[in-house]
Amino acid sequence: MFGDPLLVGGIGLEEVLIVLFKTVVTFGVMLGAVILMIWFERKLIADLQNRVGPNLAGPFGILQTLADGIKLIFKQDLIPSKADRIIFAVAPFLAMVPAFLSFSIVPLGGDFQDKGGVVSWFGRDTYFQLADPQVGFLLLLAMSSIGVYGMMLAGWSSGSKYPLISGVRATAQAISYEAALGLSLVSVLIVSGSLSTHDIVASQAGEGWLGIVPSWNLVVTGVVPFVIFLIAATAELARTPFDLVEAEQELTGGYNTEYSSIRFGHFYLAEYMNLITMSSIMVTLFLGGPAGPIFGPSFLHPVLPTVWFVLKVLVFLFAAVWTRATLPRFRYDQLMDLGWKVLIPLSLGWLLLLATIQVGRDQDWNLAIVILISLGVLFLGTALLTTAISTARRARVSEEVS
User: Fold this and answer.
1) SS (HEC) of the chain
2) Which whole number is the average pLDDT over 370-393?
3) Domain membership flag for residue 5
4) Binning pLDDT at 50, 70 and 90, where does residue 1 land?
5) Which reaction is this enzyme known to catalyze (predicted)?
6) Among 95-99, 181-185, 217-221, 252-256, which stretch is predicted with the lowest mean pLDDT?
7) Is position 19 within any domain?
8) Do residues 339 and 392 both lie within one domain?
9) 223 and 335 belong to one structural domain
10) What is the number of other CB atoms lying within 10 angstroms of the CB of residue 35?
11) Whether residue 215 sits in one domain with residue 124
């Protein structure tokens, strides 16, 4: 929060009230986005599968999510007799809180072209984000790690074998993809030079190369970290095709099988909060966040950055729904192989490549030679790793046959 100009010069009652107002706005935006996202997913999947989808509660069924939430509130709350009652009650909140805390460091608006992302609220300069800690990057990594505890503890505390298996799967899946996700984020850190999400967006603002290609980290880092982050984030969210945590054919309903009433609603809410948060994080780190061209009448200028942000996030949300309606679920061994044998080596190799190029720039080396040597080493490492994996696979097959 210390990067916010609102807090420069001391904290008084006025600053506290504005921060409280920003908290309410951020929570309201998140809650409203979740309600709309649930409706959007159900409606879009229905269209993709040639069905009608929600169409009775409100215009185009848009109030269906609200109706489902009210129904869950009034349903009977059941707790299994063998459950750990305290952990069973706390687990849903451990799934929700990290998502909101991660979303709180996302810039939602502000003119990054001319004003550095500063907006004026109640006569005071501030950022259109709840908090801008100088270690926002590390906070994001911490929250993504903590989020899995909700699923893990829900499965463990239920006193049932299927939720327990789901909790173990969630833990293994998070560990497998957390390293690749973190390494892809370090690539962004190298090119942006800051841990602050606001500074990362500011570094991507501007006209870009030749006034055409934007200076987004998607381009600057060479696309590969973005692809790795996208795949790893999908696995962290346990979304299709990595939704083995909730594989209904094997685990009934997964870690939340024993949950009912509003406790189940908390997990349902957390799932979509995490999806929206992770989409917002991807836009912030790789696609310039709310930064975009400002044009038209002057009264539209304060709104356009938020419009650009929403449009970018919608692209990822649409892709997530489209993926869910299209792709089959991975086998568990394929899930592990992709994380450990592909994404982690690739993210580590690309990180070393970007670091070498950065050092070459700082030391005024010949960048063409640096890039060629680095790519050669990268390809050699890929060939050695592929050979080792193939050899191990053939040895395993021969042992099974014999």
Assistant:
1) CCCCHHHCCCCCHHHHHHHHHHHHHHHHHHHHHHHHHHHHHHHHHHHHCCCCCCCCCCHHHCCHHHHHHHHHHHCCCCCCCCCCHHHHHHHHHHHHHHHHHHHCCCCCCCCCCCCCCEEEECCEEEECCCCCCCCHHHHHHHHHHHHHHHHHHHHHHCCCHHHHHHHHHHHHHHHHHHHHHHHHHHHHHHHHCCCCHHHHHHHHCCCCECCCECCCHHHHCCCHHHHHHHHHHHHHCCCCCCCHHHCHHHHCCHHHCCCCHHHHHHHHHHHHHHHHHHHHHHHHHHCCCCCCCCCCCHHHCCCHHHHHHHHHHHHHHHHHHHHHHHCCCCCHHHHHHHHHHHHHHHHHHHHHHHHHHHHHHHCCCCHHHHHHHHHHHHHHHHHHHHHHHHHHHHHHHHHHHC
2) 87
3) no
4) very low
5) a quinone + NADH + 5 H(+)(in) = a quinol + NAD(+) + 4 H(+)(out)
6) 252-256
7) no
8) no
9) yes
10) 19
11) yes
Quote the tokens at residue 182.
């973190």
Is the model's pLDDT at 16 over the cut of 80?
yes
Task: Provide the pLDDT for residue 41.
Answer: 93
User: What digits encode the pLDDT tens for the residues 76-118?
Assistant: 888 888 888 899 999 999 888 998 899 999 999 988 877 778 8
For the chain, how big is the Rg over CA atoms in Å?
23
CB atoms under 10 Å from CB of 76, counted, come to 6
Q: What torsion, rounded to 10 degrees, do the Cα atoms 331, 337, 340, 343 define?
A: -90
**Sign of the Cα pseudo-torsion (91, 134, 274, 35, in order):** positive
Residue 212 lies in a domain: yes
Q: Which residues lie closer than 8 Å to 311 by C-beta, 6 or more apart?
A: none
Determine the structural domain holding residue 111 and report its residue range. Answer: 75-351
Average pLDDT on 185-213 reads 85
pLDDT above 90 covers a percentage of the chain that reads 31
Asked whether residue 272 falls in the same domain as residue 376, the answer is no
One domain, residues 269 and 398:
no
Amino acid at 256: N
Instruction: Judge if 289 and 399 occupy the same domain.
Output: no
**Considering the domain boundaries, does residue 258 fall inside one?**
yes
pTM: 0.91
Domain identity same for 246 and 327? yes
- Gap between the Cα atoms of 15 and 31, Å rounded: 24
Average pLDDT for the chain: 87
Same domain? For 288 and 385 the reply is no
**AA identity, residue 399:** E
d(CA 196, CA 67): 39
Provide the 10 A C-beta neighbour count for residue 232: 28
